[in-house]
Amino acid sequence: MTGRRRTFTAVATGTVAVVVAVAALGGLPPGGSRPHLGRASLPGGALVTPPRFTRPALRRRARRAARVAATATGIHKIRHFVVVMQENRSFDSYFGTFPGADGIPARDGRFAVCLPDRRGGACQRPYHDAREVNGGGPHDAAPASADEDGGRMDGFVRVAESGAGRGCGGVAIVCASSSRPDVMGYHDAREIPNYWRWAHDFTLTDHLFESVASWSLPSHLFLVSGWSARCARQGDPTSCVDDDELQGFHPGEIDGHRPRTAREERLLERRANYAWTDLTWLLHRAHVSWRYYVHTGLQPDCADGDANCRPGPQRLTTPEIWNPLPSFTTVRADHQLRNVQDTRDFLRAARRGRLPSVAWVVPDQAHSEHPPATPAAGQAYVTRLVDAVMRGPQWEDSAVVVAWDDWGGFYDHVMPPSVDQNGYGLRVPGIVISPWARRGTVDHTTMSFDAFNSFVEDDFLGGARIDPRTDGRPDPRPDVREAAPLLGSLASAFDFAQRPLAPDPLPLRPPPGPPSRPGG
User: Fold this and answer.
1) Which of 100, 165, 361, 460 could make a disulfide contact with 293, Cβ separation 3.0–4.6 Å?
2) Rg of the chain's alpha carbons, rounded to an integer?
3) CA-CA distance, 301 to 84, in Å (whole number)?
């Protein structure tokens, strides 16, 4: 279902002859010079002035955009769909004061919420947090329920002050339960100017929910398969049962407190038995190219999304929290392990015009934004990915969705809707970046990561779903997530009749943007 949208005023562009084709990319106004997108680019003031493209480059891009518009219609103008999945930030913690968004409740310029703080003896209001190193709070199934507190959405401080740890992917002081909780803190364009710039220039989704009310591993399983389960028999999808927690792992096997032995690695490989059907099964059968890009380094979450831990290693072909596809029966049976590649391969593919039809990109701990990793490091990493697509030859028929896999314990004021026993989880930010994204729009459509899968299925698979009745690999999943009545369409974030938007590469280390205010 599609809700209201808030649209900011777009920059007017030119009208005639060859200049029209270039202006259709937002590139040249009448007279031929590129519009300045500097200090007035975002309500309240400056962000950055983007690098310029040469006039010949703009003309080439205009010709490519014209070819895309002439040879495809609707969502089929998107030939390269990329999901960049970051970690552990709620919508309100990043965009709670963004103009036009369903942000932190405010009245007369002041925040209208104050959450109980038993330790402090009063309550905590939302506040701007200029610190880069955050702690967040526990973020698996039990804390999700406690944070929501039956719809009152007032448990975040209490849960962060509990003695179970904060789910911090490290041992920083801010991760300790004894430190002052920071879950009511929020960032804005001062800390994440590129994210706010993209939200202003493209489409921000403010009712995107995690698919499952749990932590990173189940979230990523839902991202690629629409389900999270454990399976009793190796490779047998009929032996799988619903599981939104550890998927049969013991925390000590994957929590990274110490390097795993060779025996533990073999045990982990055997126990990571994802036998149910995933989206790559359908893509492979339809000869649709896909890649899952992993930034090698340290994995960004603890084993259960709760206790603090030292991060463990993240590899390409071993089953890790953020890299589950190598453990799917379908990926191994289809000999598709080579499709799990390093993020450097994504950058090369974008630069050379060889992006797959469908791509997922996940970070390592340092670039994940999972506390204590910083928003600045994550934003620089994501900017490099988005810039690569924008500068590459396939921008005109690409869409990049930047999202965060769970709320990380940070405050959000919207109660998630319920579609089944697994979710939805809490609200997370989503930014749709594409020549065809609605410019300057806040899209209020109710979505989860299932909307990403249904978009791929509609665009590349003729509407085929991960459905036990039709996909050729029956499994006992409780429902077909893409068919949930509550689920809106990601297509609402696009306008395929508009003039395609110009690429707008941003600096990796931008200056701070302007301050926001309560209520946007």
Assistant:
1) 361
2) 22
3) 17
Contact 432, 490 (CB under 8 A): yes
Cα(369)–Cα(93) distance, rounded to whole angstroms? 12
Residue written as tokens 């920071």?
182
Q: Would you say the C-alpha torsion 294, 296, 301, 303 has a positive or negative sign?
A: positive
pLDDT digits (tens, 9 = 90+) for 356-415: 999 999 998 889 999 989 999 999 999 999 999 999 999 999 999 999 999 999 999 999
Diameter of the chain by CA atoms? 69
Report the alpha-carbon distance of residue 426 to residue 243 in Å, rounded: 18
Place of tokens 């499709």: 339
Give the pLDDT score at 310: 54
Phi, psi of 361 (to 5 degrees): -130, 125
**Considering the chain, what percentage of its residues have pLDDT values greater than 90?**
66
- Check if the beta carbon of residue 222 is closer than 8 Å to that of residue 274: no
Q: What is the 3-state secondary structure (H, E, C) of 2-29?
A: CCCEEECCCCCCCCCHHHHHHHCCCCCC
Give residue 483's identity as a one-letter amino acid code: A
The answer to whether the bond into 372 is cis (omega within 30° of 0) is: yes
- Strand partners for 127: 185
**The model's pTM:** 0.85
- Gap between the Cα atoms of 431 and 402, Å rounded: 5
Distance CA 327, CA 333 (A): 11
Nearest partner of 202 among 503, 504, 434, judged by Cα: 434
Work out the mean pLDDT of the chain and round it to a whole number.
83
Which tens digit of pLDDT belongs to each residue from 420-467?
A: 999 999 999 999 999 999 999 999 999 999 999 999 999 999 999 999
Residues of the chain with pLDDT under 70: 1-59, 61-70, 164-165, 169-171, 246-271, 297-319
Which residues make Cβ contacts (< 8 Å) with residue 121, sequence separation at least 6? none
Q: What is the helix (H) or strand (E) element at residue 313, kind and residue range?
A: strand 313-314
Give the pLDDT confidence score for residue 12 in this predicted structure: 29
Q: Please name which of 134, 224, 212, 221 lies closest in space to residue 411, comparing C-alpha atoms.
A: 134
